[in-house]
Amino acid sequence: MREQKASMRETKTPAVHASPMTQPAWSETASGVGRILAAALGMALFLSLINAFGTDVIPFVMRFVYWSALMLAGSLVAVGVDRVGLKVVRHRLHLEGRPWLYGIVLTALLTPSISLVVWAITPLFGHMRWDIALYARFLAPVGIISAAMTTLNVLINREPQQSHAFSAPPTASSADGTDAARVAFRERLPFKHQKADIYALSAEDHYLRVHTSAGNTLILMRLYDAIRELEGIEGSQTHRSWWVARDAIEDIRRQDGRVSLTLRGDIEAPVSRSYQKVLKADGWI
């Protein structure tokens, strides 16, 4: 086990998975946009089959064309809102690593904008006039569909947050021997912890408990932000509230379908189900 860890420390090639901080948002990748457009067509077919919101007066083919136009146009609006609108508020509202809060905010932003799209398209398929009363009628049904699509988007694009892409490349050391790649996070720690080995981080409300070879300490910081400053230490989130350094792992415990990691310093770190698959694929557990 120790020999294997030593060989891993000597490896300089990057790990397979990128960290969430280096990965673009779903709306900035072709695969992410492609998945949501495919889901939009699937939702259009479903809404056509159930004659949603009184559209049974339209023949099926035209009904599917109608719903496809609305869902695809709405998805493109969602891409624009996510790229532009959410970029402004994502950090202020602490949406990183909180997919359901992100979904609520995205739905709130999408409903009025997509309602405008529906208001523009719907009269082309029926005997309606473009007026403000028609726009108001669309807000509730558009809100329901936007919430459903946003939930689907969160589920199909969600990936466990990883940081073990941070393999340590050769870096220049400062005069006092401190690794330059790690200094950003270490400078936040009390003096006696700054040169200690970092075993794990665990979130406690707005604070972060840093477990090191010199003991543990609390700092005011979010786990998501801390992971961004851990480049150079091979590690990964194992739980919504835990990040673990790979070299700190001494044992893996399995009991009743639950997995936990025993770390140096007699620390027990939980592994939630959402992280088990990725960690297993990478040979962690």
UniProtKB/TrEMBL annotation:
Bias kind Basic and acidic residues: ranges: 1-12
Domain (HTH LytTR-type) ranges: 187-285
Keywords: DNA-binding, Membrane, Transmembrane, Transmembrane helix
InterPro entries per UniProt: LytTR_DNA-bd_dom
Residue span of region Disordered: 1-21
Coiled coil: none
Name of the featured protein: LytTR family DNA-binding domain-containing protein
